[in-house]
């Protein structure tokens, strides 16, 4: 990535968005590959069924909440008096902490998929 892009707060949010969308694509692709080539369905096994459901919901909601953060950040940047000021590394750490907080809340919210989903 270009160094100039790393100086904007939206870049950090978009990096997290790309990561979560890439992982979500990998989850769906691996499910399809195992089903198509090996005739193994993730729903056949309790652990993989629960893990697949958890990852699908968690990553989908993480992407959505990251998009909300991007929209809030863009609106705040447009309405600020100093939109061209670059942010420091401490601001990146703040964004990182916000994303970790969102991920932790979503993990706790979707943890029931791992514990109670599917038949035993």
Overall description:
The protein is mostly helical and 120 residues long. The chain has one domain. It is built from four helices and no strands. It has helices spanning 9-37, 46-79, 89-110, 112-116. The longest helix has 34 residues, at 46-79. The radius of gyration is 18 Å and the shape is elongated.
Q: Short summary of the structure?
A:
Helices cover 75% and strands 0% of the residues. The chain contains 4 helices and no strands.
Salient structural properties:
120 residues; 4 helices; 0% strand
**Radius of gyration, rounded?**
18 Å
How many separate domains make up the residues? 1
Mean model confidence by pLDDT: 82
Distance between the termini: 47 Å
Number of helices: 4
Low-confidence stretches: none
Q: Rough shape?
A: elongated
Number of strands: 0
Q: Helix fraction? A: over 70%
What profile does the largest beta sheet have? none
Oligomeric grouping of the chains: single chain
Q: Which structural class fits the helix and strand makeup? A: mainly alpha
Give the strand content: under 5%
């Amino acid at each position: 990535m270009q160094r100039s892009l790393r100086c904007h707060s939206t870049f950090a949010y978009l990096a997290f968005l790309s990561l979560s969308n890439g992982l979500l694509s990998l989850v769906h692709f691996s499910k399809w590959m195992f089903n198509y080539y090996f005739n193994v369905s993730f729903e056949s096994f309790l652990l993989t069924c629960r893990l697949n459901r958890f990852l699908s919901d968690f990553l989908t909601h993480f992407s959505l909440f990251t998009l909300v953060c991007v929209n809030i950040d863009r609106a705040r940047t447009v309405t600020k008096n100093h939109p061209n000021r670059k942010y420091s590394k401490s601001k990146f750490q703040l964004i990182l902490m916000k994303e970790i907080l969102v991920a932790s809340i979503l993990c706790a919210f979707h943890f029931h998929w791992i514990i109670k989903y599917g038949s035993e």
